[in-house]
Amino acid sequence: MVNAAIRFNLAHAARAQVADTAEVSGQAVVGPVTVVVQTRVREGQDAAFGLWQATVNAAVAEQPGFVEQSVMPPNPPVQIDWVILQRFTSSDAAEAWLRSDRRQQLLAEGQHLLVGVHDVHLLRDASQGVVPAPVSAVIATRVKPGQEAAFQAWELRIAKAQARSPGFQGYRFEPPIPGVQEDWLAILRFDSEQNLQKWLDSLERQALLRDAEPFVEEFHTRVVRTGFEQWFPRRGAASAPPAWKQNMIVLLLLYPVVFLFGLYVQTPLLMGRAGIPFWAALFIGNVASVLLLNWLVPWASGLLSWWLDPPARWRSRATALGLAVLVLLYVIELLVFWKLL
Fold it and tell me: Model confidence at 328, in pLDDT bands (50, 70, 90)?
């Protein structure tokens, strides 16, 4: 799973708002883009949704201009939706996929698994991607016709207010894309769930939302986490460990689990003896991997707590040492599994 921070400071955001107004006319977005899909699965349909999503994954992988995809499952109570990120080389490639007959067919086949319809947003990629992390709110706003200028002026006011909120780390604002995304999109990034929720519930924000009522039809807010934080006990820390450290530990454990399950279970037993097709056997392997990581990652995070959340007085030294240890362990894994084959 690809996880990266949205880095977009307030000064850049204000300049982007001026530039973005030209794109409402339908101009193509330049450079790589990411399609962000948020969807809610009906109760008891997670397994069926996983199989259907695997078919979608295979279809989008064949789309010209497709780069990569990551799927973040729900993480209740903060994130109750599935979040799918599909990265493309250009907006033209992304929009071709969104409008394609194959995607429409797949959506029709999977609609019975979903509550309502997909929320789909198309975002330009910053240098480090657009995945919201460690915790972000994705706010879609439907603006009344002819009220776009008033909304943009109001957005500058709320941008300045939220920048003063404790834990604020970044902000991003995207205009509609005709035929693809009809809402204005804002992404707020905070350092912790507590600080994000404090801003969302604040009296200042509630007053600003009331000011926007004359020119806004509706707001739709969803919170997205990295997807790994439930595996990392905070052990008294104010916030979860940095996302990149979480990712490195997950990779350290995910690789051997996937390798060994594939070598000793998936290929000889599921696909060989049981005759299960690859796409289904791969899904079973992913389920087994996630279940094992539920135990392995908290165990490893306890051993590496000195690196995940070191004391401030020697944080730099601990970070460098832990990074070296993780890289060494990667090398050992690769050498061991190379010998196994």
Answer: very high
E strand or H helix that includes residue 323: helix 315-340
Looking up tokens 């008294």 gives: 236
175 cis-preceded (ω within 30 degrees of 0): no
Residue 213: how many other CB atoms lie within 10 Å: 8
Region of 118 on the Ramachandran plot (φ > 0 left; ψ -120 to 50 alpha; else beta): beta
Structure tokens at 239: 């916030």
Distances (CA, A) of 120 to 48, 50, 203, 251, 276: 21, 19, 30, 28, 33
The amino acid at residue 268 is P
Q: Which two tokens stand for residue 21?
A: 């107004």
Angle, in degrees to the nearest 10, between helices 10-20 and 148-163: 170
Nearest to 162 by CA among 189, 138, 135, 142: 189
Give pLDDT tens digits for 205-239: 999 999 999 999 887 777 665 555 556 655 544 45
Q: How far apart are CA 97 and CA 62, in angstroms?
A: 10
* Residue whose entry in the numeric block shows the structure tokens 């003063």: 164
**Close Cβ partners of 293 (under 8 Å, ≥ 6 residues apart):** 231, 250, 253, 254, 257
Residue 77: per-residue pLDDT: 54
In angstroms, rounded to a whole number, what is the distance separating the alpha carbons of residues 275 and 270? Answer: 6
Residue 238: the pLDDT is 43
| CATH annotation of 10-226 | 3.30.70.100
Each residue of 131-155: pLDDT tens digit? 444 577 878 888 999 998 899 889 8
Question: Across the chain, how many H-helices and E-strands are there?
Answer: 11, 8
Cα gap 264→272, rounded to integer Å = 11
Closest CA to 87 of 66, 64, 101, 57: 66
Which candidate, 84, 103, 82, 76, places its Cα nearest to that of 40? 82
CA-to-CA distance for 149 and 152, rounded, in angstroms?
A: 5
**Domain regions of the chain by residue span:** 10-226, 243-340
